[in-house]
Amino acid sequence: MLLKTKKLMKAFGGLKAINKVDFELPANEIRGIIGPNGSGKSTFFNLVSGVYEPDPGSYIEFDGKDITNEPPHKVGELGLARTFQLLRLYQDMSVINNVMSGYHTLVPYSFIDAVTGRKKIWDQEKNIKEEMMELLSFVGLADYAELNASELSGGQRRLLVLARAIAGKPKLLMLDEPAAGLSPVNVDNLMKILMRLKEKYGLTLIIIEHILKVVMDTCSKVTVLDHGEKIAEGTPTQIKDDNAVIEAYLGKKMDDEEMRKALAV
Amino acid sequence: MDKFKEIIRQYPFLGFVIAFIILMLVPSVFFTDLYQSHLASLICINIIVAAGLNIVKGFCGQVTVGHVGIYAVGSYTAGCMFLYLGSGLWLTLPAAILIAGLFGMAFAIPSFRLEGPYLALATLGGGEAIRLFIENGDFFMSTYGISNIPQPIIFGVPFDTPDKYYYIAMPIMLIAIYFSFSVLRSSVGRAFMAVREDPISAAASGINVKKHKMLAFVLSAMFAGGAGAVYAHLPPGYIHPNNYTVIEMVTFLAMVVFGGLGHIWGGIIGAIIITIVYDLTRPLYEYQLFIFGLTIVLTILFMPKGIGGFIDKYFIDRRFKTKTGAASK
Amino acid sequence: MKKINIIFSSLLLAVSLLVTSVAQAKDIKIGVSFRMLSDVGYKHGELIQDTVAEWNSSGGINGKKVDLILYNDECKSEKGVANATKLAYQDNVHVIIGSSCSSVTLPMVPVITKAKVPQIIPHSTSSKITLTGSEWIFRVPVSSRFYKIVQAKFTAENAGTKIAHIYVPDQASMDFSKSMIAYVKDEYGVDPVYEAQAGEKETDFRSYLLKAKATNPDALVCSGLVDETVRCLVQSYEVGIPKSVARVANSVASKVEVPTNAGKAAVGVSYAAAFAASDTRPIAKDFVKHIKKRYGVVPGHDFSQMEDLLTMLKPALEKAEKGFSGDLASDRKAVRDSIAGITNFTGLASGPISFCAAGSPECRDGNRTPVMIEYTKGGKNWKTKVAGTVTFNASAGL
Ligand SMILES: Nc1ncnc2c1ncn2[C@@H]1O[C@H](COP(=O)(O)OP(=O)(O)OP(=O)(O)O)[C@@H](O)[C@H]1O
Ligand SMILES: [Mg+2]
């Protein structure tokens, strides 16, 4: 298993945002996480990536290592990358610098090298930049490399956070609503790029998404959260028919026509 | 020209050698009196402080209003080492850098928990505490200052006049700039910016936020300490606690803001312009504070990224337009 | 590379701007650097400007116009040193006036000495300044080495040498009594009749005062901060120490709280000053009236010392100008020698003032006569009079 949680718990005051969630993800899978607003999806990401400290008794393992109480940068170093629901772009940095700072853990030279400004650094920096430019062209942002991230459009920003997360060549990439707010055409485009990136870098993915079509089309398995608890897990078809899911998430059983509409959002 | 640019990029050290040669020649070509040398040395000292301040404030985004205290630590390390040990600049400078670095560590600690105005208050308190400590200690010769801090003697030539001391301050300034450029153009500089922009996503990229805050504070403190020592030995070699108040801090901040926060040239441009403008407005002493306040306000309002950001914007826009064909309009 | 171009060209532009401010020959140039921070600070600056404007409108210095260059040093040595350097090397002045704070004047001295520009001090009192041995520095105010022992000398000469000391353990208060005791011992070979250190923030001095009373002293020294001084003075009457015993306080006596809070007990207490607005000499009365009318303030010692400085500088410049050769270095030397030749100048403030050629404190602490001011009435509407002067020999307090 690439990622494993056991009895993962997090309470905010009396609110159990994540309640005893056991989760297992083998390498190379694309996993969807769905659930109503406030069901704890983002909190799950924050716990796994170390942004929040899990409550005692929880256990998180990544790539065979116990990361339960590791700080976020340690988790990042181990090869777990993520995006944020609110993007958290480096607004006041150029597009290329955004991506290059995603490469941080792979930089081959030391701090002392950097301070003394040895020549080899500039060669290495050149290589890093070339590689990152390649990544930018891959997502279609190469022309914007020197612009400030804040000057990008909403769709371009989503591509940029994606590129930044991939820059560090992670083993696992967790995407928090990567397509939120995009027009259907742009959603398709983003998903296409994402699939190509997965191929290219051999990524394992977890995607939180409200657009059910995306989840149903791309994910091999879906985990459903409600009120912080895992209420169902299975293939998209299994989930579609699961009574608990329908109750919690879709509200009521839909006929095929209604379902088609819902999925086509 | 492009070829030249490429060479400089490949061998940044070469750029500094060229700058060194040019700056060595500046006095004999342009200076007509000793005061200009004195001013040039002051500019060098201010550049060192401002370049350092730009690391912590401009790049790493950590507000500090206590830097002038660390500058004082540098000066008084040099002053006291001369007073009690008889040391000269070549000993006091590394010592000042080292001790200032330690103080930088102490200043970094509040930044782990505090942000913005709270961090500003904490560092302000730190800086003022240092000044008050110096002001009330007989050990530091507080009332009448420390006098006659000597200038270096190289090959029997004492560098004890403003025109000569420029040749001490200028190379030290260049070395400081070299270090600042090296750091800021490397992955460390990028990590600083990432910490400034968003510590949470920086951490998600594997950047150790605390470590980089600490690095930024220590590095910039070392710059301030070095500058403090160079100032202490500046002829006539006199230091007094009055020169390390909040007003000086605001001036240093003005340099960085005006030059361009987070711009690699920011502190340098700002230090040059502000020092010269200050000098030119010397006879207008009644309006000086007003002029400076106005400069800062107008800069923040109309040029939030300072001169450096302004220049950058111009070049980047042009490059972008040529690339995307937007220029054809 | 373009960016580097811009930086360098702007640097060069700025430098060439500086170059344009080259001196115009012929005029006599006076450079000033002192603290002009508060409203009163600016008014000191106005006083100089107005005075020099008057000189110029009445024929200048032997027909030559005087160019005044006025800089603020904000009581910061960094600014003072820069000002001195600029005035000496760029503005090419003949003489520098400055500064207010001793911590600014001190580092200016090596600068002007190297540059060989005479400097004349309006306000700084630290004895260290003239101890540097510079031949280019002159001081108008009374040096701190005289101020330190003026109360001792005044008391011994006027009240007697049987002195009782009560002081609090504050550094300045102890120093005052100790140096007074040392002075009387050195000069007269007499020990104090009574010496006691009261507690910090002491409220009840009566037990000490009763013991002091028993020794039947000529003078009683109450050395403390404002509050302790006031209590000690008031209680000295409560325990019945007669009026004929002189009451002495340290320099806190010049603070308005002392006469205001001590009331009647402040009468007879004196302090040393460079100038008193209550000075009854016509010259002083006129000056006070003039300053009040023109600048709306009652002049203190800083106004009067600046006025004295300018008054003695003018004839010195006139004398020097006759020997001007047009060569700046020799003209500056002429100004220096001319100022060094000032003898027995009597002005508003303490004095007379005499300088001499050597670069020693004996020659350059020209003012050796502080004025003693005495309270004649206490309470809210307190009044003072000039009680007399104390004149020191040139090497006193060294
Ligand atoms: N830092 C926090 N402090 C207090 N409560 C929090 C915090 N973070 C999350 N919560 C609460 O935990 C619950 C789960 O929030 P979370 O953001 O994980 O939901 P989500 O499933 O991502 O919802 P959405 O689909 O709207 O993004 C919510 O009730 C939220 O208010
Ligand atoms: Mg969420």
Summed up:
With 265 residues, chain A is an alpha/beta fold. Chain A has two domains: 172 residues, Rossmann fold (3-Layer(aba) Sandwich); 68 residues, no CATH class. Chain A has eleven helices and ten strands.
Principal-axis shape of chain A equals: globular
Distance from N terminus to C terminus of chain C (CA atoms, Å) equals 62 Å
**What's the Cα radius of gyration of chain C?**
24 Å
- Termini gap of chain A: 33 Å
Level-2 CATH architecture of the largest domain in chain A: 3-Layer(aba) Sandwich
Write the layout of secondary structure elements.
The complex is a heterotrimer of chains A (265), B (329) and C (398).
Chain A: E1 3-12, E2 15-25, E3 30-34, H1 41-48, E4 59-62, E5 65-66, H2 72-77, E6 80-82, H3 95-102, H4 111-116, H5 119-139, H6 154-167, E7 172-176, H7 184-201, E8 204-208, H8 212-218, E9 221-226, E10 229-234, H9 236-241, H10 243-250, H11 256-263
Parallel strand pairs in A: 3-8, 3-9, 6-7, 7-8
Antiparallel strand pairs in A: 1-2, 1-4, 4-5, 9-10
Helix pairs in contact in A: 3-6, 5-6, 6-7
Chain B: H1 2-10, H2 12-30, H3 34-59, H4 67-85, H5 89-111, H6 116-135, E1 153-154, E2 157-158, H7 162-184, H8 187-197, H9 199-204, H10 209-233, H11 246-259, H12 266-280, H13 285-302, H14 306-324
Antiparallel strand pairs in B: 1-2
Chain C: H1 2-19, E1 28-34, H2 39-57, E2 66-72, H3 77-90, E3 95-97, H4 102-115, E4 119-121, H5 128-131, E5 137-139, H6 144-158, E6 163-167, H7 171-188, E7 194-197, H8 206-214, E8 219-223, H9 226-238, E9 246-249, H10 257-262, E10 270-273, H11 282-295, H12 301-321, H13 328-340, H14 361-364, E11 371-377, E12 383-389
Adenosine-5'-triphosphate binds at residues 12, 15, 17, 35, 37-43, 85 of chain A.
Please tell me about this protein's structure.
- The complex is a heterotrimer of chains A (265), B (329) and C (398).
- By secondary structure, chain A is α/β, with parallel strands linked by helices.
- Chain A folds into two domains: 3-79 and 169-263, P-loop containing nucleotide triphosphate hydrolases (Rossmann fold); 91-158, no CATH class.
- Chain A contains eleven helices and ten strands.
- In chain A, strands 6-7-8-3-9-10 form a six-stranded mixed beta sheet, with helices on both faces. Chain A has a four-stranded antiparallel beta sheet with strand order 2-1-4-5, covered by helices on one side.
- Chain A is globular.
- Chain A starts with a strand and ends with a helix.
- Chain B is an all-alpha fold and 329 residues long.
- Chain B has a domain at 31-246.
- Helices cover 75% and strands 1% of the residues of chain B.
- Chain B has a two-stranded antiparallel sheet with strand order 1-2.
- The mean pLDDT of chain B is 91.
- With 398 residues, chain C is an alpha/beta fold.
- Chain C has two domains: 27-144 and 284-367, Response regulator (Rossmann fold, 3-Layer(aba) Sandwich); 146-278 and 371-389, Response regulator (Rossmann fold).
- In chain C, 46% of the residues lie in helices and 15% in strands.
- Chain C has helices spanning 2-19, 39-57, 77-90, 102-115, 128-131, 144-158, 171-188, 206-214, 226-238, 257-262, 282-295, 301-321, 328-340, 361-364, and strands at residues 28-34, 66-72, 95-97, 119-121, 137-139, 163-167, 194-197, 219-223, 246-249, 270-273, 371-377, 383-389.
- In chain C, the strands form three sheets. Chain C has a five-stranded parallel beta sheet, with helices on both faces. Chain C has a four-stranded parallel beta sheet with strand order 7-6-8-9, with helices on both faces. In chain C, strands 10-11-12 form a three-stranded antiparallel beta sheet.
- In chain C, strand 1 (28-34), helix 2 and strand 2 form a beta-alpha-beta unit.
- The longest helix of chain C is centred in the last third of the chain and has 21 residues, at 301-321.
- At the A-B interface, helix 2, helix 3, helix 4, helix 5 and helix 6 of A face helix 7, helix 8, helix 9 and helix 14 of B.
- Magnesium ion binds at residues 41-42, 85, 176 of chain A.
